[in-house]
Amino acid sequence: MESSIHPVLDPEQIHAIETLKGAQRVLLTGHERPDGDCIGAQAAISRVLEALGKQVAILNPDPPELRFGVLSRAIDFGVDQGGPIPPHDLLILLDCSELSRTGALSKRFEEAGSKKMVIDHHIKPLDRWWDASFHDVTASSTGLLVARVANELGVPLDEIAARGIFTSLVTDTGWFKYSNTDAETLALAASLVGQGIDVSKQYMDLFQRRPETHPNELGRLLTSTEFHADGRLALLTLPLNPQGKVHELDTDDALDVVRSVGTIEVVIFLREVRPGLCKLSARSKTTYDVAALASAFGGGGHRKAAGATIKGSLKEASQRVLRAALGNLED
Ligand SMILES: [Mn+2]
User: Model pTM?
Assistant: First the structure.
């Protein structure tokens, strides 16, 4: 990898690199329901650290989705079963900056007595609870940050690390179409293709192996679309599945369809995750700041993509978010 595609590190990032060099047993973790960026970044950093002779394990609150099968066959993505935390001297949280986002694991991580590090591109919380952090809110994905780390450590990306980082890039840029798609992202993607990543095969693996139920479920979700404020704001809701469990539908395609409506400025999506608890995810097409909206509900994210967890039924949560979102819409 040519070093010129990545920016120069800041002092905090240099400290993070030194902390990585000094660690022997590293434990990786990430947020609940890990997405392609979280899984891809974990796969990549685990290969990079192993190449330096370090022991690496992963312990996540939830397993990777089936579509990340190529990565999860090569990498052991450990899933919390409620047992003790494996021994480690450095815990690295990837793709989020709050330990609480590891759910039931967070208390045991806190009590583990290990050093803590964050590698992330979301807004930094005010409470800097970590010992080291490799943070950049302008980075398109956590996987991009892992590529910077690998470059700094002088470790070439092997096939799995390359796949992991490519998975991160395409997940968080919506296949290179969101506003976070920058020159570094495209240069990195080009170098990954140069080292053998097959773009159309990646697309097939990640997005074209869905079950037969997918089109109808997507249709039902789209049917839930409500337009407000003269079509500037849309709200979509997804209740629990018929078994009363969280509906695991990949909603990106449906949200893209709604976002494609000319008048739309902001799309709000609420997924019921268990009775009385909903996950908000909000996407902006304009200068509308969805991070501010999400933070009003204790969440966070980026100006154009943010989320939060909201107590209440789907109906109650929808009403609260809708009221707040409409209040933030400029005339
Ligand atoms: Mn991410």
Answer: 0.91
